[in-house]
Amino acid sequence: MHAHKTLRQLSLGSSFTRSQRGRAWGSPHRRFATSPVASSIDRSNTIGFIGLGAMGGHMITNLISRYQSPASGNKVGFALCDVNQAAVDTIIKRQNAEHPDVPLISCSTQKASTIITMVPTGKHVQEVYVGEGKSVLSALKEMSQDQRADTLCMDQSTIEQSVSKAVALQLRQVGADLVDAPVSGGVIGAEKGTLAIMVGGSKTSYNRSVPVLEAMSRKVTYCGDLGAGLAAKISNNLLLGITMLGLSEAMLLGKRLGVDPQVLADIINNSTGRCWSSEVNNPVPEVKVGDASSPAHRQYEGGFVTKLAHKDLALAVSAAVEANVPLAVGRCVEETYKPLAKSKEFGDRDFSVIYEALDTLGSTKV
């Protein structure tokens, strides 16, 4: 299957033809909205950002607002790109009003020495970096050796280690480099700039990436060689899925045995069952924890959607097979989420909707 078909099949909101889609990833042959000072953009001080969805849109906003200019005093510019051009135009318009002196251009990643990607799957990462037509790799091949060596790519998508390593190898062959830098914290963390970012790659590239990544996060951690960041993220999200399903079962059991859900939630959060899901994202609609409003309070809208949560669980199961690690609980959780991820009713809602599925469908049907 060609990569250009993947975008349509995975419903990223694109109605582009193949040639249009190629231009959307960075062709200089198409006119887009830019900031009034875009002509002053300098490649060495420009950050390209590809993927302005629920996470990426907030992340680039924090980058523009918080990223410090280099000591030289030059302005840091930004090149924005997404298959949904309306998302690009909306962000540029808003940022032009809030930061009129920041250089902003649309869909010209070849004009950026630092490129960040935040896309849904490994197939999208391959298409952006090394796919047919206008990709990052094709743009690099048209540059000087010095420009290639000055190019650092940071993929913040949660994908297969094998894909990340294969893409990095092709970029390194032309002189550029890539680090995997997946994030944890969800849409709320992206909006507040409190993400946790796990980085894998060379220590030199990691050190270069830190100032950029810190502008979007509360903590950046070096995990080791290329792929180590993804390993940490996949392991964390495996545990996240396990705890959410376990919490949902415990809350439903307690409720049906006669315990008030709010009372049970308070007990869990002051006992050994306490976890992130119980403290921040309790799946029971009638439970209030702290001042924040969880997705359960709004029909499970927003948050970490079920189909992406299942994608990460499936990545963990696949990685465990390769690493010869038994996942007795993890595999069960992945199998439980699988039909929900494919469901129109549950797939695009927060993964805590597993509680509603258990409550309404029964454990034998989930």
TrEMBL record:
This is 3-hydroxyisobutyrate dehydrogenase. The lineage of its organism: Eukaryota, Fungi, Dikarya, Ascomycota, Pezizomycotina. The keyword Oxidoreductase applies. Gene3D superfamilies: N-(1-d-carboxylethyl)-l-norvaline Dehydrogenase, domain 2, NAD(P)-binding Rossmann-like Domain. It catalyses: 3-hydroxy-2-methylpropanoate + NAD(+) = 2-methyl-3-oxopropanoate + NADH + H(+). PANTHER family: 3-HYDROXYISOBUTYRATE DEHYDROGENASE, MITOCHONDRIAL, 3-HYDROXYISOBUTYRATE DEHYDROGENASE-RELATED. Keywords: Branched-chain amino acid catabolism, NAD, Oxidoreductase. Residues 46-224 form the 6-phosphogluconate dehydrogenase NADP-binding domain. GO terms for cellular component: mitochondrion. It comes from Fusarium acutatum.
